[in-house]
Amino acid sequence: MAEFLFWPALLAYGEAAVAYAGNVRYPGLGRLATWGVRAGWIMQTALLVVQAYRADGFPWDTWAGSLNLFVWLVVGGYLVWGCKPRYRLLGLAVMPFAALVLAASYLGGGADADGSGQFSTAFLVLHVGLVLAAFAGLTLAAALGGLYLWEERALKLRRPGLLRLRAPSLLTLEALGWRTVAVALPLLTFGMVAGFVHRAALDPQIVVTLVAWALYAGFLIAHPRGRRAAHLQLAGFALVLTAPLGLLLTHLS
Amino acid sequence: MKLTLVGTSHKLAPVEVREQVALGADEASKLAHRLAGDDREAAVLSTCNRTELYIVGGEEADAIAELERVGGRPLAPYLYRLGDEAAALHLFRVAAGLDSMVPGEGEILGQVRAAYEAGACGPVLDRLFRGALHAGRKARAETAIGESPSSVSAAAAALAQQVFGELEGRRVLIVGAGKVGELAARNLISRGAEVAFVANRSSDRAAELARKLASEPLPLEDVAGELERADVVVSSTSAAGFVLTRAAVEDGIRGRKGAPLFLIDLAVPRDVEPSVGMLDGCFLYDIDDLEAVVAESLTGRHREAERAEGIVAAEARRFRDWQASLDVVPAIASLREHAEAIRTAELAKAEGRLGGLSESERRTVDSLTSQIVNKLLHGPIVRAKEAAALEGVGYAEALRHLFGLDEDARDGHPRRLPGQ
Lengths: 253, 420
Known about the structure:
Chain A is mainly α. Helices cover 78% and strands 0% of the residues of chain A. In chain A, helix 4 packs across helix 5, helix 6 (170-198) packs antiparallel against helix 7 and helix 6 packs parallel to helix 8 (226-252). Chain B has 3 domains: 3-142, Glutamyl-tRNA reductase, N-terminal domain (Beta Polymerase, domain 2, 2-Layer Sandwich), CATH 3.30.460; 152-280, NAD(P)-binding Rossmann-like Domain (Rossmann fold, 3-Layer(aba) Sandwich), CATH 3.40.50; 322-410, no CATH class. Chain B has helices at residues 15-21, 25-35, 60-71, 84-95, 107-118, 123-142, 152-164, 179-190, 203-212, 223-226, 246-252, 287-349, 351-354, 359-391, 394-403, 405-410, and strands at residues 3-9, 41-46, 50-56, 80-83, 171-175, 194-200, 216-219, 232-235, 261-265, 282-286. The A-B interface holds A 27-28, 151, 155-156, 158, 160-164, 166-172, 224-228 and B 143-144, 147-149, 155, 158-159, 161-165, 257-260, 277-278, 280-281, 283, 285, 289, 292-293, 295-297, 300, 304, 307.
C-alpha cells in the first residue's frame, strides 16, 4: 500500500519539477506543474496517513522518515501561495529539491509502512514535528532568497527576457522571505524548547540548530534588505541542512 | 439571421483611407442605429486602425454604401467582407488584440466594449460582442500576450514594477522636462506612482511640467540630494555630460538603508554614469536596454499570440454552435407544439372513456401523457441541436419535412393531426 502511494507521489513531484523547468520556455506548462504539485502532495498525505495508521507511535523517527515528513511540510508550505502563476519560478527551486529528498527518504526506508515509532512522549513528537515544520519554512525562505538573488542579478545584467518570465517583484520576494522566517522561527523555538524539556543535553546537532536559531533571530531583529537579506536566508539554510546531517550521523554511529 | 461584417483596417488600407472612414463615438452610434431597424441589428467599431460594420439581417451592399458615403470615395479595394463564423472569429481576434499592430495591446478591448454599448444590438450582436469581450479577457488572462511592454516608456514602468511590485505611492524624480521624460512619467503615474519632483536646467520648463504632473519643480543641482527619498529616477536631459555621476549617486543613496533605486536613463548622450548600475541596490537601464526589452517582449507577444489564437478559435466555435442552434429553435418549438396538440386532442377524444375517473386520476393521466411526449421528443431535440451546430440548418428542415410542420404553419391553421 505504501509503495503504491509513494511512487505516484514521487512521479508527480518529478513531473512538476520537469514542467516547472519547461515553463520557463513554454508558459503553458505551468499548469501541469501546479497539478503535479497538488497530486503529489495528496498522494504523500495519504502515504503519511497510512504510515501513521500502521505505526504504534510516531512513525517518522528515523532520519529517512523525518525526510519524508519534511518534504510533505515543504510542499505543503509551498502550496499555500507557490502555485500562483507569479511564483512558478519558485517551484523550479522547490520541486526538484522535494523530489530528490523524497527519493532519498525512500532509499533510507522512510516511506515504509511497517516502521514502528520509538518516540513515546508527546514532548518528543511535538519537538520533531515543530522542528521539521520550522525547517520546511526556512527551506522555503531560502528558495525565496535564491530567487531574489537570481532576479536581482538578471535586473543588474539587464536581461531583456526577464519580464516574460512573470517573476514576483524583488520587494515581494524580500517581504515574503522575511515573513516566512517570522513564522518559522517561533516554530523552531517551541520545537527546541520541547526537545530540551525532554532531554536537557547538548550535542553537535543541537549546537548547529542553536546557531541557526541565533542567525534567524538576528535576521528578524535587524530586518536587512536586498542581497544581504537573501544571503542570510541562504546561510541559515546551509545551517539547517547540516542539522539533519548531524541527525543522520547520530543514527549511523 | 445572417451576420455580416464589412470593414477596413490597417492591414488593407493606408492611413489616408482609414482617416476618411474613421468615426467619432457619436457618429458611430448614429450609423449603427441608421443601419438597424425592425428586426435588423448593427454595431460600428471605429478606431484609428479600423472601421468595421457588423450587421445582422441587413444587406451587405447597404453597409458598403454607408461606408463609402462616410469615406466620400469608392472603398472596394480596401474592404473585407466576412459572414457568420468568419465574422465572429474576426471580432474575437480583434478583441483579443490579435489583429492589432502590436499584438495584445489593451486599448482595443475598451473600444470593442464602447462599440457594443453604442450599437443597436439585438440577440445576435449582443451574444457576439459579449463573446468577443469574454474571449479578449480570457486570451489576456491565460496567456502573457498583453503583459509585456510595447514601448520604451511602458518597458521602463514594467521594469520598475519588477523591482517594487505595485507602484502605488512610489516617488518618481523626473530629470529633464522634455517630451520623452513626460511620456515615461505618465506611464509610471498610470500605474500608481507619484511624481515628487521635476528637475530641469530651465526652471520655467521644470515648473510647467511639474504643474502638469501635479508635482514640484527642483533645481538640477539638488537632484542628488533627493535620491535618498526617490524610488524611481527618469532622466532625459540634453546635457553633454553626465548629470548623475557615480559619486553623486553613491552619496545620495547612503541613507536608503538598502532600499532599491531604479534609474531610467532615456537621454542620448547618457545622463547617468553607467557604473551607477553596479552600486548595491541601484538598477540602471539606458535607452538601448529598454529597446532590447521592447524587442524581446514583442517577440514574446508573437509567441503568446499563437496560444491566444487557440483560445479565440474555441470561443468563435461556441458562437457558431449557438448561432446554428438559432436556426433549429423555431423547428423545435413547432415540433413541441405539434406533439402537444396531438396529446391534448387524443385526451379530448378519450374524454368519454375517462369520465369515470376522479380529479386526481385525471391529473395522473395528464401527467403520464406529458411525460411520454417529453421522453419521446427529448432525444430528437437534443440531436437536432447538436446536428445544427455541425451541419447547419439541414436538420431543422428535415425535422419540418418529417413531421409536416411547415404545412400547418403555412396556412395558419392548427396543426394537422394524424387521423384528422
